[in-house]
Amino acid sequence: VYAIGNYIWWELNTPIIPLTLSAIHFINIFEEGWLFYNAPLITWIMRGMFYVFGKEYYDLIIIFVNYIFFLIPLYFIYKIGTELKDKETGNIAMILFALVPAVYGMSRQYGHQDYHIIAGITFNIYCLIKTDYFRDRKWTIWYGISVGLGLMIKDAFLAYFFVPFVYIAIAGLREKMEKTKIINILISIAIGSLISGWHYFRFDIVKKILEEPTKEMYSSPFSFESLRVMTIGLWEELLSPPIFILFAVGLIYFIWKYKGEYKNVILLWFFVPWAIITFMPHHKMPEYGAGFIPVMIFVGTILISSIEKIYFKKTIVMLLIVICFLQYINF
User: Which tens digits make up the pLDDT trace of 53-107?
Assistant: First the structure.
């Protein structure tokens, strides 16, 4: 349904011309060299697609690539949901994620690397959970790969993965200081550095990461105009009203009632980037929070799956699906 809907939208709107920041990212595809000011993974993928399929239907290729970056988080959202509670939670989370307006809206545009971060961070968090506090060598290697690939999507990936990584590493070592865990942590760092280091270990990129959060400051970070982006803006521009309400109520339940092993990882996944985006003096937009959309879905879904009355639970899910699907049709 998702693929068909986006194809019909493309037929009605082609050609789709990248504008403003999207145009800047799009130009990178045709520039010489392999390293750019922005993280290059999406640029490399688009170059490969244009080389194979040509440029005539460039906008359809963009939508196709974005569709792959939709399927990846869809899978890992299901897997994380099963780790947090059960298969029912994974299934509901997967359905609600697919119906978030910001997700299908950004999937139709080029250059929105915040959209692509969703794939990177869901892969990363799932691998982090599966490392079992860095006891498991195989998943440690996969975790290192997920870090490297995530960083090659966008610099902002740092805000999402770093604190949960530190939390799990410290928690694992506090439980029992083992040589295996230390080696696994170092292996993950080494793999992540090998994949992403040739982009990040450059003076201009380090300077960019340190300075960019304070650039483009149009108003005080504590002004209403700035604060509304990551508060009211989540309602207006990132989530639909019913999913936002579910998230708000679910967050209270998640903090006070949920007792899952990886509760703190999920909370850090949301609150760390949310706080950074909210209080940085840089001009901000709701799409900057795309990477924590899965968290907002998880906390709401766990609330739903905790309802004991099956009829009531199914009614809520069906109402959400119907309302969100109607929004999708009208988008």
Answer: 988 888 888 888 988 999 999 999 999 999 999 999 999 999 999 888 888 888 8
Q: In terms of C-beta distances under 8 Å and separation of at least 24 residues, what long-range contacts does 267-275 make, across chains too?
A: 268/163, 268/164, 268/167, 269/121, 269/125, 269/160, 269/164, 269/295, 270/295, 270/296, 270/299, 272/159, 272/160, 272/163, 272/164, 273/156, 273/159, 273/160, 274/230
Rounded (10°) CA dihedral 167, 170, 174, 180: 120
Is residue 78 within 8 A of residue 94, CB to CB? The reply is yes
Residues 176, 180, 185: CA angle, nearest 5 degrees: 95
End-to-end CA separation in angstroms for the chain: 14
CA 137, CA 140: separation in Å to the nearest integer? Answer: 5
**Cα–Cα distance measured from residue 25 to residue 40, given in angstroms and rounded to the nearest whole number:** 10
